[in-house]
Amino acid sequence: MILFVIVILTILIYFLAFKNKSLKNKSTIKKYICINFRLFILITSLFLGFGLIFIIFLSMNESLDIFLEEFGKVF
Fold this sequence. Notes:
- The chain is mainly alpha-helical.
- The protein has one domain (2-74).
- It has helices at 2-19, 26-59, 64-74.
- The longest helix is centred in the middle third of the chain and has 34 residues, at 26-59.
- It is elongated.
- The protein starts with a helix and ends with a helix.
- Keywords: Membrane, Transmembrane, Transmembrane helix.
């Protein structure tokens, strides 16, 4: 799944970088790829963090309703 997202992101980056005429400069393309890679790492780390929290709460034998109630109080 993560590999699939990486492939789609790289195709999207190259499509956007080469479609725009002002991004023909290689340094601009490198900056664009770095920014998108940082965003990708941030999003995947957030998903992994929420997944770990969810697994920890479920492994503590709490029911899903109690977890969702407590999660709703936080936000």
